[in-house]
Amino acid sequence: QVQLVESGGGSVQAGGSLRLSCAASGGTFSNYAMGWFRQAPGKEREFVAAISWSGLSTWYADSMRGRFTISRANAKNTVYLQMNSLKPEDTAVYYCAASTSRYSRNYYNTVGYDYWGQGTQVTVSS
Questions:
Q1: Core vs surface per residue 48-77: b (16+ CB within 10 A) or e
Q2: At a CB cut-off of 8 Å and minimum separation 6, what does 87 contact?
Q3: How does pLDDT run across 36-52, given as a tens digit for each residue?
Q4: What is the spatial distance between Cα 91 and Cα 99, in angstroms, rounded to a whole number?
Q5: What is the per-residue DSSP string for the chain?
Q6: Is 24:79 a contact under the CB 8 Å cutoff?
Q7: Is the pLDDT at 1 greater than 90, yes or no?
Q8: How far apart are alpha carbons 104 and 58 in whole angstroms?
């Protein structure tokens, strides 16, 4: 059983940056691909980014590519999401998730993940 705890959320003005962290425990972190999702009020949870178990491959939602960067430090059991040029529409609860799948097509959807964190709030004001 893997436990995931997100941190680093907060309030920032448009154009600012935040770095989210997700610390994993209870499993072998390098066995999992990791993903970030977000959910705004009244909306479905949507894919943000994913990274392979090795960190060599990454995937992004089109609207985040170029602004967000996902990375991981397997020695620290942690995955990160660097968010730059933030916009008010980025306001949401951000979740990290762990996947045992080896198929990248599964990383774009919530059903492709086995474990979830509780989320961290990101609020971007205009």
A1: bbbbbbebeebbbbeebeeebbbebebeeb
A2: 14, 124
A3: 999 999 999 999 999 99
A4: 25
A5: --EEEEE--EEEETT--EEEEEEEESS-GGGSEEEEEEE-TTS--EEEEEE-TTSS-EEE-TTTBTTEEEEEEGGGTEEEEEE-S--GGG-EEEEEEEE----GGGGGSGGG-SEE---EEEEEE-
A6: yes
A7: no
A8: 9
